[in-house]
Write a structure and sequence with these properties.
Layout lengths: L1 E3 L13 E10 L3 E7 L3 E3 L2 E3 L6 H13 L4 E11 L6 E4 L3 E4 L8 E5 L4 E8 L2 E7 L1 H4 L8 E7 L3 E2 L2 E10 L6 E6 L2 E9 L10 H4 L5
Parallel strand pairs: 2-14
Antiparallel strand pairs: 1-6, 2-3, 2-5, 3-4, 3-16, 6-14, 7-10, 7-13, 8-9, 10-11, 11-12, 15-16
């Protein structure tokens, strides 16, 4: 993983990439804000930068969406890191149709949204054959996973995903635990002592190195 230190004001990303933001929200310099995902474990507030969106705008938006807190203050950018590149992994860089054949005139029976992770299977005629499996559904064995396999334009994909880490502070009061509904899930928010943090899901446990 490549790690860069701030300032990030002169960033020059690759021609196509997915950018992410991660929020380390602290209170009274003693507590870190975390949430319990219903199926995926304990996490930090984080998410995808929308097309044309600034990084600070994105981290404030994601914090509000995933925690319900809007009275937060950005203290500083902690740097950025490019995610490791899986041998056959790619990300969808813009919303795209999924075609039955490597031909734009062929039937397109599904669509993949920007930021989706897919596995590369083959390449032909400016198209990449990809496979997508809904990992959230895999964690809940009551449901069969959603799967999509087909062809998408090569220029709709990228192999680069970059995460930007921010330290934010909150000085108000909250319940001991509270819930927020977002992305079809109910997140349970709580403050954890910086001296006794619970285990975070992988690879978020490695992100703490940017904060400490």
């Amino acid at each position: 993983m490549r790690i860069a230190q701030p300032p990030a004001t002169s960033r020059q990303p690759p021609a196509t990439m997915i950018e992410k933001v991660v929020a380390f929200v602290t209170r009274a310099e003693r507590e870190l804000l975390l949430f319990q995902h219903p199926t995926a474990g304990i996490q930090l507030p984080a998410g995808t930068v929308e097309a044309g969106e600034g990084l600070e705008t994105a981290v404030l938006r994601e914090t509000a969406e995933e925690t319900g807190l809007t009275a937060v203050t950005i203290q500083r950018c902690l740097g950025w890191a490019d995610d490791p590149r899986p041998p056959d992994g790619m990300w969808v860089d813009r919303d795209t149709a999924v075609y039955a054949k490597p031909d734009p005139a062929s039937h397109h029976w599904a669509a993949l949204p920007r930021r989706q992770y897919v596995t590369r299977l083959a390449a032909e005629n400016g198209f990449i054959q990809v496979s997508y499996v809904d990992n959230d559904e895999l964690r809940d064995h009551r449901y069969a996973p959603c799967q999509i396999t087909g062809w998408v334009p090569q220029d709709a994909l990228t192999r680069t995903r970059r995460r930007h880490f921010y330290h934010l502070t909150f000085s108000g009061h909250t319940p001991e635990r509270w819930q927020v509904q977002t992305d079809g899930h109910t997140f349970t928010l709580f403050w954890a002592s910086l001296n006794a943090l619970p285990s975070l899901i992988s690879p978020q446990d490695t992100w703490l190195a940017h904060f400490r």
